[in-house]
Amino acid sequence: CQQRLFYGQRLLRWSGNFFVIGIILFSGSLYALALTQSAWFGPITPVGGVAFMVGWLLLALAATKFKTVKL
């Protein structure tokens, strides 16, 4: 059963995906760089940082799409 997601919900899902990608690439590359001293992992770190920034941007956009409900 597939649900139709609203625009804000899709943004939240994409935001979470970018956060996970950012964690893996940014933190993982720094961890691997510290353990292996291989310079190959250095250029991967900024890609993870950009993924974090995209995740935050999508989260902010998603927050503007949700409406508050008065009780």
Description:
The protein is an all-alpha fold and 71 residues long. It has two helices and no strands. It has helices spanning 7-36, 44-65. The relative contact order is 0.20.
| Radius of gyration, in angstroms, nearest whole number | 16 Å
Helical fraction equals over 70%
For this structure, the quaternary state is single chain
DSSP summary, beta strand count: 0
Percent of sequence in beta strands: under 5%
Largest sheet: none
- What series of H and E elements makes up the topology? HH
Key features?
mainly alpha, 71 residues
Helix and strand arrangement:
Layout: H1 7-36, H2 44-65
Helix pairs in contact: 1-2
Please outline what is shown here.
By secondary structure, the chain is mainly α.
